[in-house]
Design brief:
alpha/beta; 2-enoyl-CoA Hydratase, Chain A, domain 1; 15 helices; 30% helix; Rossmann fold; 430 residues; 2 domains; seven-stranded mixed β-sheet
Length: 430
């Protein structure tokens, strides 16, 4: 690895703040002051499944870098294993209207996580180091492979654009997570997801210092370029305006943690009780259950044992474009049952990210009267998926056309949640 002094952190944030575009631009400008003329810069940007302010920050960064006369400025979409965005979706994500261009911007690359020729190995976390980072949950060496654009000598500086919110695998999204699994190869993609499952979703989501966070940050130390992390904390107002509560830029560890401290106050809601039923009106950004499972991840903590999560999502039309066949073959189940399936299946052993998803959506288990591990609550989907598909993955089915919100709003044992999947709901603070 080349020597690369860690940038300090600039920015500001607080739950009550509402930063203007001018304030955001000033913070980005301050963060990019150390980028010299002639530099080669790669921006890593979120995909369409994330709701964030990249459309404000990216044009500002583009103009600032053009003024600083950088030699090259490209972008790479941190889509993980998601399907690529269309050209129109990419342009919208970086804030370009029809006919507009970003000064100095070259290519916008898709990340292809399962194409070996598109990846490069930049290091390895030894078995001893992995065991230390994960508290013994994983005891095998992990190869650090990621998109070939991050190979030594390709770019001098990497900018990570992204919003910080509670996350089921890493605890909070943001920072080094945009490398792993955002632009990673299969080794760390599978390892991080399975690690998040082994640590258990209830002990990971909404926490900063998690085994997964520690592993992805150790892996990120292998990235040879200098990294400037641009961490936002955003919410949607009732009139659909995106409000920015915080923007911290600089060292990927410290900038992320300062953003997570604000996110903890704006993205975690406390109910003081559990509910027999939670009705999740799924956020429109989630059009497949691979990401729409966030309704379960972020609401499971407030559902009673034997209760129900009803996910209303007419726009949800697939289990997963990438992993759907595997998910339908094995179905959702609590972690103990998924571990048994993994032990018996070389197919799942080679696709641990899918195995983790099966456990995460199921959320948690309990033992029934016969001593069998069963889901702690049942999940019913009112979506564009047909009944047969729902049954294959062990979920209940409701015709979304028969759903009426008013049937549930007056029930004191039911909580109706708008834009489900965005905020984390807990009974009380950890």
């Amino acid at each position: 690895m080349s020597s690369k002094p860690a940038p300090s952190v600039v920015g500001k944030g607080a739950p009550e703040l509402d930063l203007s575009p001018e304030e955001l631009r000033a913070i980005v400008g301050q963060a990019l002051l150390t980028i010299a003329p002639g530099a080669r810069v790669l921006a890593i940007i979120p995909d369409k499944t994330r709701d964030d302010n990249t459309d404000i920050l990216f044009p500002a960064a583009s103009e600032i870098l053009a003024a600083r006369q950088v030699e090259q400025f490209d972008a790479l979409v941190a889509q993980g294993t998601h399907m690529p965005m269309t050209e129109a979706e990419k342009r919208a994500k970086i804030g370009l209207r029809e006919g507009e261009t970003a000064p100095g911007l070259g290519q916008i690359y898709d990340h292809q996580w399962n194409h070996p020729e598109e990846l490069v190995t930049i290091g390895e976390l030894s078995a001893e180091r992995v065991s230390e980072l994960t508290g013994g949950l994983i005891n095998e060496a992990v190869t650090v492979n990621l998109n070939r654009l991050l190979a030594p000598g390709t770019y001098d500086t990497v900018l990570i654009f992204g919003a910080t919110v509670p996350h089921e695998v890493a605890g909070f999204a943001g920072g080094a997570k945009y490398f792993f699994p955002g632009v990673a190869g299969p080794d760390l993609t599978h390892a991080t997801h399975w690690l998040g499952a082994l640590a258990s979703i209830e002990r990971v989501i909404g926490r900063v210092e998690t085994p997964t966070r520690h592993m992805i940050e150790a892996a990120a130390d292998f990235v040879p370029a200098r990294v400037i992390s641009i961490n936002s904390v955003v919410t949607r107002t009732e009139d659909e305006r995106l409000r920015t509560h915080a923007l911290f830029c600089g060292d990927f560890r410290e900038a992320f943690r300062r953003a997570a401290e604000v996110s903890r106050h704006v993205h975690i809601k406390y109910t003081g009780r559990k509910y027999r039923r939670v009705v999740a009106l799924l956020d429109e950004h989630y059009d497949e259950l691979w990401v729409g499972g966030k309704a379960s991840y972020k609401l499971g903590g407030i559902i009673e044992e034997g209760g129900e999560l009803l996910i209303y999502a007419p726009h949800l039309r697939a289990i997963s474009e990438t992993h759907g066949l595997l998910i339908e073959k094995y179905g959702y189940a609590p972690l103990d049952r998924v571990r048994e399936m993994v032990a018996l299946s070389t197919e799942l052993q080679a696709n641990l990210a899918v195995a983790a998803h099966l456990a995460h959506v199921s959320y948690a288990g309990q033992r029934d009267e016969a001593g069998r591990v069963v889901p702690r609550y049942r999940i019913t989907l009112a979506s564009a998926l047909d009944e047969a598909t729902c049954r294959r993955v062990r979920l209940g089915f409701m015709n979304y056309r028969q759903f009426r919100r008013e049937d549930y709003e007056s029930d004191p044992d039911t909580l109706v949640v708008e834009r489900a999947g965005r905020d984390l709901y807990l009974v009380e603070p950890h």
